[in-house]
Design goal:
384 residues; mainly alpha; 18 helices
Length: 384
């Protein structure tokens, strides 16, 4: 095992910045999942090439590597692998419940409101004629209902975490190189998992694994190169380059919404960054996320006082309970979408729906945290 790994895992354990970023990602995904919502203009995807999904996958890879890497260091690889598989089962169980209830809810609402277009909008058109087939394909992670693709991706990526950890703790650079080679091969040969009724996964796991493994590398595998990473952050040329790239990304994304700005930018530049190259995770998306991570870790240290502010605690709590928050956000975004298409189409209503959804997710996060504490309380003196 790499001699730096144990010390690096201990140094990174309990980092509140991880939960802060996961909280930002869950809130952003919720807002992004509500169409025609003006509040979603504040989410990450509007300020550059990468968005909440990229951040989510990267940070989950980072957090999972720390959590299960610590178990591997303390109790061995076999125990660590079994804990990972237990988590995979929890993710899959959450997905099954979410998928079945979600699809049934959409069908019920579509029937009650005489709005069959909802089936096409949420990508479950075949549910009308072949409900059993859609359910079975969904259980096999082959259905593509709208907004569930992130959870499907997590299940597959987490299933391969034991292999990633095994490689990172022994041959970190070789493991990272293998991940990059798989990414390039998948993009070149168009590798993807099969989806139902046709095509492949919206988030190609052969490509998106790169962000997940990169997160694990920064958490565990790059422990021996940590001094190099810190030295790179002090290079003025690298800082300027990263800042310029972020500004270019912001400009190009703004040009997509402003015809006047788009006319000022050469078409060759705009064509180099197609906005629809998300399925196979375009390289410029990865570079944008790394540039943001570069400045985030530099500007917000682990002991940043802002992490203790009361105003930030709801975000951190949602990050700690990200699975429950994410699942509830799926239903709340569907409810918010219905409210906006059936109620008054005003900015005030959009703000109200967004605020109510975030409040609901926050309440669920605090309840999930409270419930876990009750499960761990001592039962001494309590009779069965």
């Amino acid at each position: 095992m790499n001699p730096y790994v144990k010390a690096e895992i201990a140094a990174r354990d309990g980092d509140l910045r991880i939960f802060l970023l996961l909280g930002i990602a869950t809130w952003s995904l919720f807002l992004d999942h509500i169409p025609h919502n003006a509040v979603s203009a504040l989410t990450l995807r509007n300020f550059g090439f990468s968005g909440a999904t990229e951040l989510f996958v990267f940070v989950i890879g980072y957090a999972a590597a720390i959590m299960y890497g610590k178990i591997v260091v303390e109790r061995g690889f076999v125990v660590g692998a079994t804990r990972v598989l237990k988590r995979v089962w929890q993710l899959y169980a959450a997905y099954v419940v979410l998928f079945v209830v979600y699809v049934d809810l959409i069908g019920y609402v579509a029937a009650q409101s005489a709005a069959p277009d909802l089936f096409a909008e949420f990508n479950i058109t075949d549910f009308i004629e072949h409900p059993i087939r859609v359910i079975v394909r969904g259980l096999l992670l082959q259905a593509k209902p709208l907004n569930l693709d992130v959870l499907q991706l997590f299940i597959v990526l987490m299933a391969f975490l034991p292999a990633v950890l095994f490689g990172m703790m022994r041959w970190p650079r070789l493991t990272m190189l293998g991940s990059f080679a798989l990414y390039l091969s998948a993009r070149h040969f168009d590798w993807n998992l099969t989806a139902f009724p046709e095509g492949g996964w919206y988030l190609n796991p052969f490509c998106w694994q790169l962000l997940f493994v990169l997160g694990a590398w920064f958490a565990v595998g790059g422990a021996g190169d940590a001094h190099l990473v810190r030295a790179m952050q002090k290079l003025p040329a690298l800082r300027v380059t990263a800042l310029i790239y972020l500004l270019v990304a912001l400009t190009i994304m703004s040009a997509g919404k402003s015809p006047a700005l788009a006319e000022m930018i050469p078409s060759s530049v705009l064509d180099a960054f197609p906005p629809n190259d998300k399925a196979n995770l375009a390289p410029y998306r990865v570079l944008h996320l790394l540039a943001m991570a570069f400045f985030f870790t530099m500007l917000i240290p682990r002991d940043w006082y802002g992490l203790q502010l009361q105003a930030v605690q709801p975000l951190i709590k949602c990050g700690e309970e990200w699975l429950a928050v994410f699942c509830s956000g799926i239903f709340l975004s569907f409810a918010g979408h219905l409210v906006l298409i059936t109620g008054p189409k005003s900015l005030a209503m959009q703000v109200l729906v967004s605020a109510a959804g975030i409040l609901g997710m926050t309440c669920i996060a605090y309840y999930a945290s409270w419930s876990k504490r009750q499960d761990h309380k001592s039962a001494v003196g309590v009779r069965s």
